[in-house]
Structure formats: structure tokens, C-alpha cells
Amino acid sequence: MAPQPSLEDAGLVSLQESTDEDGWSQVSASLTYQLWRNPANRDDPVNLRELDEAMRRSLEEEPPWPRPAWLIERVQRMRYPLLWETVRTNWSREVSEYVSVARQLVEHTNYILMNQYREELGLGPGPTIDGMWSVTEAAVNPVAASLDRVEVPAVEIDTDPFVYALGLTLDEHTSVTAVIPREHLDYVRIAFATRVTRE
Questions:
Q1: Is the same domain home to 58 and 1?
Q2: Contact assessment for residue 34 and residue 10, using Cβ atoms and an 8 Å cutoff
């Protein structure tokens, strides 16, 4: 996502890859962000997420052994909402309809729904198959999006009651998608920025 006060890179990157005899055939990297509803005052209770009683107890319990500072900080961060795997960059060696930005946006959206909204969707434990709960490519519409402050062609899914999704093609092999919970849309500017990597 483009830098903005309400979002902080949580330092959590999820990687998925597929290989064959020629090496990597597909790779995706997903980023998770910490959400700050009031970034000017991180101590503001509005920044806290809703916790059930079991989660609250587990965060407040002190173990009988010392914990390193990084772990204490990570536990404290669990009190605040995360945009879990909200931005995903996808690369595919082969160019096909299967790896189109529309297809990738649908897959990313269903992945977030299946993993973050199971109870709301009435999904039981265990493996899940697509059904009435899942979105399809029929829900994908053309729009424009911001990439490095330039408006570019994009696609969106704006039909799901729980999430809004936006994606765009970076080149014929690469796309980027974002899936944002609707409850957080007022706090997020959905714009993409190229991340500079260092050797």
C-alpha cells in the first residue's frame, strides 16, 4: 500500500510458490499491516480491536518465565487490528487466463473470506469448497487505481458484504491485489506504491 499514517507494515510476509523442472512457475508474497484508526495518538482506545474474553485473558496472563522484548511487543500488538495478508503480489512465469488479475483478485478475496469470516459465512471447520459464500469473476468490474500516484486501469470486487477488493496488472507476468475489510475502509486510502528493495 502507499505510505499513509493509518497503516504500518507489520513485518509479516507470507510467501507461496510453485515449482517445476524449470524452477519457479508461480510466486506470491502477501503483506500484513497494522491498522491505526487514530495514528496521531496510538494510546487512543479507538485503536484497540474487539477481543473476546478468552483472547483478552491470554494477552493479560504473564508466563512464569521471562520473555524477550520483541515477544512482549508482538503480544502487545495483538491488541490492535491487523489487515491480515491484505496486499498480495503475484508473479507467474507463464501468461494465461488462469493468472489474470481478475482471477488473482477472486482467489485473494475468497482466501481472505475463507480464513477471516468463517463464522459470519457459516463455514464449519476443516477443508472448505467454493459455494454460495464465495465470489466469482462475474463480480469483477473495471475501475482505475493509483499506482505510484498515477491512475492506471484496475479491477474491483465491490459486491461482497465483508470486504472490498482491488487489483491491477503490473506487467504480463505480475499483478497486485488488495482485500480490505469493509469495517476498516474509512481508515485506509487504497493506493499502491512500488516498494524499493535493497541489495
A1: no
A2: yes
Asked if 93 and 149 sit in the same domain, the reply is yes
- What does the pLDDT profile of the chain (199 residues) look like in tens digits? 999 999 999 989 999 998 888 888 899 999 999 999 999 999 999 999 888 777 777 777 888 888 888 887 877 888 899 999 999 999 999 888 878 999 999 999 999 999 999 989 988 887 777 788 899 999 999 999 999 999 999 999 999 999 999 999 999 999 999 999 999 999 999 999 998 765 5
| Residue 54 structural domain | 38-80
Residues 89 and 183 in one domain: yes
- CA proximity to 187, closest of 59, 110, 86: 86
Give yes or no: residues 107 and 135 share one domain. Answer: yes
What order of strands is seen across the sheet that includes strand 140-147? 7-20, 23-35, 82-92, 174-181, 163-171, 150-157, 140-147
192 and 158 assigned to the same domain: yes
Judge if 73 and 98 occupy the same domain: no
By the 8 A CB rule, do 86 and 7 touch? Answer: no
Does the global pTM surpass 0.85? yes
Instruction: End-to-end CA distance of the chain: give it in Å, rounded.
Output: 22
